[in-house]
Amino acid sequence: MTLIIGSDHTWVKGIIPLYFRDHVIPYGDELKAEDFATVRSAFERLIRTELSTLIGLMLRAPIDFSLPSPDETQKLIDRTEQLLSELHQVLATPMRDSLKAALAEGPKKDELGPFVDAAIMREPIFYGAESAFAFQYRDLAVPKYARDEEWLQAHKGFSPQEGQQVVAAICDVLNENLLATLRNLKTTHPDKWTFLGGFTFSTNEIVSKSGLSVETVEAVTSAFSNLEDGNPTFTSLQEFNSANAYPIIGAGDGRHIVFLPTSLCEALYDTPFYWMGADAAYAKTAMQNRGLFTEEFTAERLRHVFGPDNVYSNVDIWETGARKKKLGEIDTLVLFADRAIVVQAKSKKLTLLARKGNDLQLQTDFKGAVQDSCDQALLCSNLLLGGKAYFADAAGTEISLPMHIKRIHPVCVVSDHYPALSAQARQFLEFAVSDAICAPLVCDVFFIDVVTEFLDSPLRSLSYLDLRAKAG
Fold first, then answer.
1. Which whole-number Å values give the CA distances from 266 to 76, 132, 398, in the listed order?
2. Would the pTM count as exceeding 0.85?
3. pLDDT value at residue 12
4. Measured distance CA(462)–CA(467) in Å, rounded
5. To 10 degrees, the CA torsion angle through 370, 376, 382, 384?
6. What's the CA gap between 47 and 54, in Å, rounded?
7. Structural Rg of the chain based on CA atoms
8. Is there a contact between 426 and 400 (Cβ–Cβ < 8 Å)?
9. Which of 252, 291, 310, 426 is surrounded by the fewest CB atoms within 10 Å?
10. What are phi and psi of 341, to 5 degrees?
11. What are the tens digits of pLDDT across the range 155-193?
12. H-only helix segments in 185-260
């Protein structure tokens, strides 16, 4: 099943009212709990993937900046929501059909479940929850590309830190401009109301806010600006949509538009890797650096919870102290009392082909991103329990293991947003749980960041891992 999408820009003249309605929370001098009561329910409001689809469609045709009448705007909004509802129904059809068939036929021997088909996973992949907060994308881009700073400076004209500063300044300016736009509506006739000014910024505003040079600000905005080529690759729902990778849209006279600030933050985190991947001479280095970031960031966050003396990075497992036969490797090992955490990190992503509903590619992607690391975690966990192998840290120093390890928590971490990761782990992951080895936690670096921030003591984190394993 392929959803072919057109390029009728009348679909999306209501993008800004839709975004304002579903993603902006008005409040007074102080944000209060009751302010959130104005937000529409999760079943009613449009999510970012839907809005990104609308923006991608808008880029397929010349953008019309003329202001429609209130009646025309409402008609366009109603029509857009109707089409998006129909889209959701189409994506959900394979899942409904599979559930009906499963209920009618009853359980079968060796049944993998009704969600194993890739076409069924398209719905949770497209409508799945966000992996990260906007500030995580923005701020973690700095350590992610710290080793690539020389390449970025030479090819794009800015460092990771400067990219972060410009994006943060853009988001701050947009917040200020949106507030000013709302205040101006009080003295504007309703027929002339528009929120466009709240999504528009100028280069000078960002220079003033960030304190960086004009050249640096222009380098960042240019790098993430839409190419104005008609978004030619966006011919079906899961094809490449340049609105996600290049979310800044030129508005003329030195002005720029960003409809989804979160998409700009995600682009800062995600898009540079593809620039470097297109450089054949640097692609391998870029891939290695991404893997190192995942491992080092996870280890750093675990040290925040368990202390540096209990966290080991790049652990080698040898058959004996002679170190002639290597049995395995652990990216990060936590030893605390009679508990152990075995972390394996991967930097694989969900490919476009898998998002389209290709069964083989979906399972291939999952194997590379999750299953392989879980298999490795299980192997290393069993070696920990065996008590005969020789464990050495990155410096080659032997690690003294506890006399008795009561429980081991395998953790598999991916470096990027992996849509419907939990759903795919429930469906596809094969893992042998025992009394000592718990069900693995499959997550991304953003989740590790949040958990270690809130559960910042060993007992709280281990309690969470216990409960999560039981639920898994």
1. 28, 9, 40
2. yes
3. 38
4. 9
5. -110
6. 11
7. 25
8. no
9. 252
10. -120, 125
11. 999 999 999 999 999 999 999 999 898 888 888 888 888
12. 203-210, 214-223, 242-245
